[in-house]
Amino acid sequence: MGAGIAEDDDDHGDCLDRRPCLRYFLLATFLATLLSLMAYGQWNSMFRDHDLDAFSVRLAGYEGIDLGRPAATVSPKFRVTLGTANGACVDRAAVTVLYSGVALGWARAEPRDCAAGRLERDVEVVARGQGVGLSDRLRARMASEWRRSSGALELDVDVKIFDEDTYPVHATYHIPDRVMLCKVRTDGRGSESPSCAWFSPVTLAFA
């Protein structure tokens, strides 16, 4: 009986030698875990490198809409400048100008600054709307606010930024790297927002 037990222990001792597939499986699992940790570290490093990116929006002017007496259908144009700082750059940008949640004009720009290594360059766009319908309630609210603010109506500027150099896979699936909502005023003096708070949809998805 004692010899039989000793023989069973030997069988278990050289189990890995008799089953090379199990040994390879353990090795593959170890390598996969190691690569995952390395990729995760690189992923976090990329986002840390861009944590200080700063953006602002400037409304240089507008036309095609009388904010004090808006028509039922308008085709406005808004000259918008997207400012960058702290090493930020833009390959592509989508800009939408809104009032009370209603889009009045929109534009796209493709300066390809990140790919060319050009940092902290302003991006200028003209956000246009064609035949935008405004409800009576919205028109009344716009006119009332315009009068109360002496022509300094507050508009929202929604910005989506794509950095195709750092995150090329995002561009493939049309995923923006930075999303922000800035506020500007139509005061006729080139109203500029303070630095716009931004977030990354991809970072939130993996948080």
Low-confidence stretches: 1-13, 37-48
Radius of gyration, in angstroms, nearest whole number: 28 Å
- Proportion of beta-strand residues: 25-35%
Count of separate structural domains: 2
Reported for the largest beta sheet, the result is: 5 strands, antiparallel
> What portion of residues is helical?
25-40%
Q: What is the overall silhouette?
A: elongated
Would you tell me the structural class of the helices and strands? Answer: alpha+beta
Distance between the termini: 58 Å
**H/E element string?**
HHHEEEEEEEHEHEEH
Per DSSP, the total helix count is 6
Read across the widest sheet, the strand sequence of neighbours is 5-4-8-9-10
Average pLDDT level: 79
Transmembrane segments: 22-40
Keywords: Membrane, Transmembrane, Transmembrane helix
Protein name: Late embryogenesis abundant protein LEA-2 subgroup domain-containing protein
Organism: Oryza meridionalis
